[in-house]
Every structure is written in structure tokens, then in C-alpha cells.
Fold:
Amino acid sequence: MNIADRLRSVRNALGMKLADVSEKTGIGISSLSEIENGKREPMLIQLKKLSELYERPLSFFFETTEISSPALLWREKPGNEIVVKQLEAKFTKWCRQYRNLEIWTNWPRLNSYEDLFVSTYPKNFPEVRRIAHDTWKKMDLGARPGESLFRVMEEVYAVKVFHFTLEGDTSSACIYSENFGAAIMLNKNSKQWRRNYDLAHELFHLVTWKVRKDISPDGSLTQQDEQNANVFASALLMPVEALREAVESFAQKDKDKDKDKMLLSIDAVDSIARQFGVSVDALLWRLCYVYGMPNEYVKNIIQGWRDEILPQVLPRKSKTPDMLPDRYRDLANKALNNGLISSKQFANYLAINVSEVYARNIPQQFDDVQINNPTC
Structure:
């Protein structure tokens, strides 16, 4: 594909009209039309404006291969396809920038994410739970994985995690690319315990990425895929032995009826859920498996919890995260302070005004330093 074809293809994929592009870039509609039809070559300044609008690196428009990239796997994919394309373009742009920062700062990866890949796709729930246990052990997540999962994924395995504002029931998505590695998008509007679960849910899709054969081109997943991911998340965040210890520490034995029967107060259930960083619903379903509780019994408890108990429970605190991860910001600051990128490029990478960079009293000699962009 030539430049004209790539420009037209990306614009159409994002659902934008020539008038929309003209308004946002200041390039005339007639000029845009002639460029897309190959009647004139775009100037570099025009390409730069278009690359920023389309969330693509400049190098993208000079490639000759067909446009192809691995699709994001969505949990509750947004219904509007144009919104999906715009989110995917924005997300992959941030992932590429993240990878650029890793390359520029020569960031030492402690462990390879590829070490977490499984060799075969699980055939049933017991195999899913085994994969969860093996992953928990490899990542050394400890007795309360919800407290360490994000940090270990980001700092040890270099998984790129961004928090976007997602509408409706959309909560997360993930992708694995040979160019920038593993990446996850979470909904910043979700509560902390929901984000923990979504993070573990997406981790399943990533560790099975290379052995799943039924990935749809549009990123949709089968019901079985999603059920497997939920079982994986539950097993990863609530290891059996750690969960049993927590339950037994809160349990009150009913000595008058059955010495082997343990009773948990509503406060105890809520406390255990908080300890593991999960919702009460997720905890109860995990207890259903660990202790062999009937499904209908658990459903009734959950319904009663939602209708009668939840309104009386002290609300759990949940801080809304920044869109950019801490490691991304740290790498950007390191690149700037070491003179690897200019103040303008730093501002662009953090989506801030360049005047905010100058206010930090960065040494002047760093302002004009430029380096070649990585190929990814």
C-alpha cells in the first residue's frame, strides 16, 4: 500500500470524514482529497498533523505492506465500531510510545513475559486452575495476589497497563504484539477490586495468546474463553491454601449443631473480600468451589447480599488511577533527564503542555536533543 492508500484506509477505519480531518488539522478538504487519491504528495508537516490525529507513527505511512495488526481482545466490547477503532488506535499508540521509552532508556527487563506463555490451551476448568496456580507460583504473588499483581506485571514482566475511560459495561481489553509486547487496557472508572479481577482476567488471555486458534479478526471471544478467564482470575487472586486460612481465622464453629460446620458472619465475608482485593460476589463463588457449596445456595446468598446487606456495609475506598502507569512516567523522566528526548517530545509523550516541562527547570541543553524513532 502507498501513502495515499494508507491515509484513506486509516481515516475510514476511524469513521472520520474529510471534513472532520480538515477541521482538526487545518488541511483543506480539497488537499486531503487529492492526497488520498494520489494526485499530490503530502508535505511532511501535513503528514505529521495526520499522524497525530490518526494516532500513528510517521513511519506507518511509508510502509508498503498491507495494514495488519493483532486485534485487541475485548471483555464486553463497545457496541460502536467507530469508538472501538478510535480506542484501539489510541491504545496502541501509547503502547508503542511505552516501548520506545524502554528502548531509549535501555530498561533492563527482570523477567521475560514470554516465560508465562502456556504450551497448550486448557481443555477444562481443572486445567485452567492448574495454569492459574503455575502462573501464581512463577510470578511469586504471595498469599494476597491482589496486592502485588499490578506491580509484578508492570515492574517485573514489563506488561503495559493503561487506564482508559470506557463507557457502558466495557471493563478491559488486552493485546500481545511482537513490536511492543503484552499490554492491558483497564477501565479507570471501575472500582479497585473490579480492576484487580479484570487484570487477572486479561492475564489469562495473554498467557494463552499463542495457543488460542480461534481469535476472531475483530477481537471477539467465545463464551468458553471468557468463562476460562473468570475461573483463572478467581484461582489466581484467591489461592486455595491462603483462602482456607483466612476463612478459618474468621469462622465460628456452630458447636450445638455440627462441629465440622463453619459459619461466617457478613462482616467476616466482607473483610475477607477486602483482604484479597476482590468483590464479595467473586469471593462467594470461589468459596463455592473450594468448599463444595451448592450453586443455588451461593446465588441466594449473593442476591441477599446485594438487596439487604450491601446498603448497610461501610463503603470500600477506591482511588481512581491515572491513565499513564507510574513506570511509563518514570521512564519518560529518565529519558528527559538524560538528554535522550527533547522537552517537546517529553510533553507529547505525557500529553501535557510543553510550558509545564519548562516550569520544571530542565537544563536547557536537553531541549534540542533529538534521536531517531525506533522502528516499532
In short: The first strand starts at residue 73 and ends at 75. Confidence is low (pLDDT under 50) at residues 363-372.
